[in-house]
Amino acid sequence: MGDFATVADFLQMGKHGLYVWLSYGIGLFLLVYNVVSAYWLKRQFFINAKRRLRREQGSV
Amino acid sequence: MKIKMPRWFYQLASPKWFYDFTGKLLPWFSLVALLLLTVGMVWGLVFAPADYQQGNSFRIIYIHVPSSILAQSCYMLMAVAGAIGLIWKMKIAHMVAQACAPIGASIAVMSLATGAIWGKPTWGAWWVWDARLTAMLVLLFLYIGVIALNSAFENKASADKASAVLSLVGLVNIPIIKYSVEWWNTLHQPATFTVTEKPAMPPEMWIPLLIMVLGFYCFFAVVLMSRARIEVLEREKRSDWVKKVIENY
Amino acid sequence: MSFFFAALKRDLLLVFRHRNDIINPLAFFLMVAVLFPLGVSPEPSFLSDVASGVIWVAALLACLLSVDGIFRTDYDDGSLEQMLVSSESLYALVLAKVFSHWLISGFCLALISPLVAMMFFLPEQGYFALVMSLLLGTPTLSLMGAIGAALTVALRKGGVLISLLVLPLYIPVLIFGAGTVQAGAMGLSIQGYLALLGAILVFSLMFAPFAIVAALKISVRS
User: Fold this and answer.
1) Into how many domains does chain B fold?
2) Which of A29, B94, C78, C89 could staple B160 via S-S, CB 3.0–4.6 A?
């Protein structure tokens, strides 16, 4: 597969494994974090909005 | 100062139109972003050749460079959106600008972290006062400043305008800051390491990089649109069309 | 033009009435400079190495600390709003306020900097570079700081925020200012550096007042 002889080699990355996987890990984490936080904000908005709407309509 | 703009420009100003339009775009951009990022990362990790000098740590370039490019582009967009909001008094422009800031800050962190991690096997230290890393650090400070200023104002309209002014001031200063940091770096660089520009990369190396850059841009579009849409809903929550959206959720 | 001098005269008069306040940036400057030998090392060789940077950082911090006061007192008693609504030139007003601030901060710092340079064993050839770089650099610091002050004058907890907003803008001035002193101390020509500092100053003089006025209008209306 590509440049690497075995899966073990792939994970090792020729002694640079820590650095490569740490970087990709941070990259992936921040990408996912952005997506998740956007989604979470949207959910929070709708939860609060529905609650408010129910309150306003209920008080009519 | 009123400059005559084409019709679609003013159409953009309608928050409802923006919401509907981005709603249609989101699924496509999400798909493309996911595809590009997956292909790019797998290619970069597995199939791209290792660098002659740096070995496999070179693969970090596929995260570091796209995030650096995006961090800078995002700031420019934020400042331009702020300017549009100030000049044409479009609320939607300010909403977009506000959505840019946290995204840009996290991407700047990504660039700094991956840059520093890349520095360890390459230059032997976890942090190096390299010109590009230092300039990116200053960019992060600019982002944090905009976010902090935005949240310090109680009045949304004032917060928008103040952040717009600040991001414009920052934008004007970025070339000066970059130049001064690069110049400073040439004075203070220890003799041991030379910052070599990558020699011309073979296509097996730069194609995945291009894919990743495009993927990052699509990703940015997705997250920006999502956040801007929430901002639209939040600010227009008194209007009927938003009430309908809430009911239909 | 007469408005500029009228505003300047008013500000200087106010400063003169609170003469003790003038000491604050100067005292801070001296104290920060003193902290370094105490916290690190009083070795002449070490101090003369770091003199250019440390003195400049101390000056920068002293300016930063005093910048909040440019508009605050006028904002608090409502006279800022009056000035903004009046038909007088805001550009001139802002320039007058920044200039008066510089006179009691950067300008004075530049004048007493040889004292600090002596404590840091700065080579004699560096003294001129130090004073000149401070004279050319601190007005820019006042201008940039005024942008931050204008943006935060209406906020309750604006103080710390100013530092966050303004420090990235200070970095080029610091780099070139300290570079000037370093070059001077080594006996190299400082003309290029002074030209750079001058260029940054001119650039700031042209554009900062617009940002300051815009920020003031936003703050006062909020």
Assistant:
1) 1
2) B94
Cβ proximity of C168 and B141 under 8 Å = yes
- Cα–Cα nearest to C179, from C53, C55, C58: C53
**Does residue A8 form part of some domain?**
no
Selecting from A14, A34, A50 the residue whose C-beta is nearest the C-beta of B55 gives A14
E strand intervals along chain B: none
Q: In C, which residues are within 8 Å of B154 by CB distance?
A: 222
Task: Identify how many contiguous H helices and E strands chain B contains and give both numbers.
Answer: 8, 0
Mark yes or no for CB contact B176/C147 under 8 Å.
Answer: no
Per-residue pLDDT of C41-53, as tens digits, reads 889 999 999 999 9
CB contact under 8 A, A42 and B110: no
Contact criterion met (CB < 8 Å) for B246 and A50: yes
- Rounded Cα distance between C134 and B65, Å, is 38
Considering the domain boundaries, does residue B227 fall inside one?
A: yes
Point out the residue among A20, A35, A50 whose CB comes nearest to the CB of B60. A20
B161 touches chain C (CB under 8 A): yes
Is B247 contained in some domain?
A: no
Chain A CA closest to residue B226? A38
Ordered mean pLDDT values, 10 residues apiece, chain B (249 residues): 71 84 94 94 84 79 94 96 93 94 97 90 81 92 95 92 96 91 81 52 84 96 96 90 87
* Owning domain of residue C148: 2-221
As a whole number of Å, the CA-based R_g of chain A is 23
Candidates C175, C196, C202, C210: best to mutate against B (most CBs of B within 10 A) is C175
A1 in any annotated domain: no
Residue B36 lies in domain? 29-46+61-190+218-236
Chain C positions touching B175 (Cβ under 8 A) are none
- Is residue B117 assigned to a domain? yes
* Residues 6+ away with beta carbon under 8 Å from C161: B145, B148, B149, B152, C148, C152, C155
Residue B165 near chain C (CB below 8 Å)? yes
Q: Would you call C172 and B176 a contact, using CB atoms and an 8 Å cutoff?
A: yes
Mutation pick from B176, B182, B185, B188 vs chain C, by most beta carbons of C within 10 Å, is B176
In chain A, the number of structural domains is 1
Q: Which domain holds residue A36?
A: 15-58
**Domain annotation covers residue B65:** yes
d(CA B133, CA B115): 7
| Number of domains chain C is built from | 1
